[in-house]
Amino acid sequence: MSETVLRARQLTKRYNRHLALDRIDLTVRKGSIYGFIGQNGAGKSTLMRIAAGLAHPTSGSVELFGASEGAKLVTARRRIGTTIETPALFPHLSATENLEIYRLQQGIRNRSRIRETLSLVGLADTGSKKSAEFSMGMKQRLGLAIALMSEPDMLILDEPTNGLDPLGVVELRELLRGLNRETGLTILISSHILSELDQMATDYGFIHQGRMLEQLSASELQTKCRQYLHIKVDNPELALSVIRKGLLSAEYELEPDGSIRLYGGFKRAGSVSSLLFSAGLEIEQFTPVGEQLERYFSRLIGGAAYA
Amino acid sequence: MLNLLQSELYKLRKEPSFRVLSLTLLLVAIALPLAAYYSASNGQNSAVNGIQSFMNGVKGNTLFMKIALAILAGFFISREYGSGVMKITGSSGYSRERIYAAKLTAFTIGIVFLSLLCPLVCMAVGSLLNGFGHLQETETAVYFFRTLGLTILFAIAFAAIVTAFAFMTKEHGVTIGIAMLVFLFFDTCSQLIGRYIPIYKYLYEHSVFKLFLEVSAFRLTSGELALSIAMPAVTACAFGWIGMMAFRKMDIQ
């Protein structure tokens, strides 16, 4: 069983009458990229803020690197880097000066770490330019540099692609994937734009109105989102034989109720139906099934259009 | 804690409002004795020496320090909420108490520096123009060191009050506006209220606000001196503790 970096147990957060988090359970495995998906106001930022120590839970607990209480939990937060909501910058300071603050704060003796971190995020050549004059993409990258300054074991990134152009999104994704692959950095990343996460995340958590709807790995999600033809005929054995002969590379499953799942059959639906029909089979059901991540999430939160 | 403090002092050094306040107070401190010198040259007033300029600088502090407190608290403390910097500090792996203590210490150092700038530069310029001189009314050295010490003590007390307030308001505009209003009108309002409510008058007269106005007095009885030492010390401790406890329970937005 893989090591857990962050675990939330029955985490609840109430702001007066508003229930921001409702008994959330969440587990982030070491070395994973955990895509935290939910609409605006679903509770993603609240959970991340509690994990980062910025907000106190109403009930429930957070465990970080095995520490769940008091001073140990506070100290464990030295192993994380965060950007919550907006990049936290001093607008009157340059990128180097901004990082100098955090170098001093974290007690990092090696001054060259600033240069290394700026190079990593592609801001090494900004010189004395004040961060107020940076584009939104540069600010996001500087925010990420601050989070990476102390060489953390885990990054908590709340909507880090906000304000980035499409190229910036791709660059950020590649940077995070690279860090994850090369250093084993664990990443908890939130977004309400699912397509930003589906090429990167290894695990997913879907949150809606303060409730965790589902947690699953990327492969589980892929299976759930996989497109297939759902076929029900009067003679399944014959149907499988026909499919095997007619579609040599076909991947299929026979369900206990006798129905067949024919994966990748979307594009070949016409030829499949012809094959079955010409074999004299009586087709009771012939339905394309499967969905994109967006559709899956929409269905999960009760979006009737995709149900 | 030392790392946090170093980081806060670096921020203070780079804080534009701190630089502007320092420069402004420096110019004021140079201008005050110069104006007195030229006034004396024209026979309008008697010459003002170093210790008298120091006294003028301390009196000026009753206004300058309050303005400095409001502005620096707004920009150095409250603005960190708006910019999100407080979120990074809050999640940096230091306890809330340490974060608060480091911020309070750096802010206090800044305020003490600003509160000493005007009296000491005034004294230096006055001494250059007319010599250091001496006071007829009291022992000059005792007066100088006592006033300097009390100025530092009151600066610490006011810094503790304003830090607690700035951490709670979280909006730099609100902090500057309200702190400025309170500091500029509190004394006048309190004197007015004190006429009708005797207990309020008693409390006000024993508060740091009233005692601070007496810092430049030539003579203080031992009771007055003890009160002028004890009250800012107690105020600083009380507000330091209140602010720290409030910040510990606070959610950082």
TrEMBL record, chain A:
Pfam families registered for this protein in UniProt: ABC_tran (PF00005)
GO function terms (MF aspect): ATP binding; ATP hydrolysis activity
Keywords recorded for this protein, A-Z: ATP-binding, Nucleotide-binding, Transport
InterPro entries found in the cross-reference section: AAA+_ATPase, ABC_transporter-like_ATP-bd, P-loop_NTPase
Ranges of residues in domain ABC transporter: 6-234
Family membership: Belongs to the ABC transporter superfamily.
Protein name: ATP-binding cassette domain-containing protein
Organism (species): Cohnella nanjingensis
Automatic annotation (TrEMBL), chain B:
Membrane-spanning parts: 20-40, 60-78, 99-129, 141-167, 174-193, 225-247
Alphabetic keyword roster: Membrane, Transmembrane, Transmembrane helix
Protein name: ABC transporter permease
Lineage: Bacteria, Bacillati, Bacillota, Bacilli, Bacillales
The UniProt record lists the keyword Membrane: yes
Organism: Cohnella nanjingensis
